[in-house]
Structures are given as C-alpha cells and as structure tokens.
Amino acid sequence: MRAASGALGGSRHEEPGEGGADEAVAFIAEQTGALRKLAERHKLDVLHYLLGMTKLEADEHLRLRSKRKLS
Question: 7, 42, 45, 52: most buried by Cβ count inside 10 Å?
Fold first, then answer.
C-alpha cells in the first residue's frame, strides 16, 4: 500500500489521517475505489457492493464538507 501524498496534501512519510478528518475521508475514498476494482476483477460481488457503498459515503461526506465551507 502506498502512503498518502499528492492530492491529499500529505508527505510520503505521513500516516493516513494525520492531516485531519477531511484528508482521512479523501484517503478512504481513494483506497476504497482501488479495492472495489480489485473485488470486481475477482468477482467478489458482496465485497464489491460493500466497498461501493463505503466509497459513496466517503464521497458524500467530502461533498457536504465542501458545500459547508463554501457557505
């Protein structure tokens, strides 16, 4: 697994979640998307579904946070 960096604003040596809740949720959304693709490739239907729901929840959290910050 790779460390949080780039779009998440963390350094290569930083653990996921050290940048606050928004960074943690962004990391979870990114990793969940990758895991979901892996589950799909191996026909792990229940895991694919559950990871999809997790990604939707993380994306919704980020969307609502962004909306509140704009207000």
Answer: 52
Distances from the Cα of 59 to the Cα of 11, 29, 32, 41, angstroms: 22, 6, 11, 22
Whether this prediction's pTM lies above 0.90 is answered by no
Task: State the average pLDDT for the chain.
Answer: 83
- If one compares 6 and 23, the residue with the highest pLDDT of the two is 23
Give the pLDDT confidence score for residue 68 in this predicted structure.
79
- Measured CA to CA, the distance from residue 32 to residue 49 in angstroms comes to 11
Report how far apart, in Å, the C-alpha atoms of 68 and of each of 4, 6, 18, 21, 58 are.
24, 24, 22, 14, 16
Rg (CA), the chain: 13
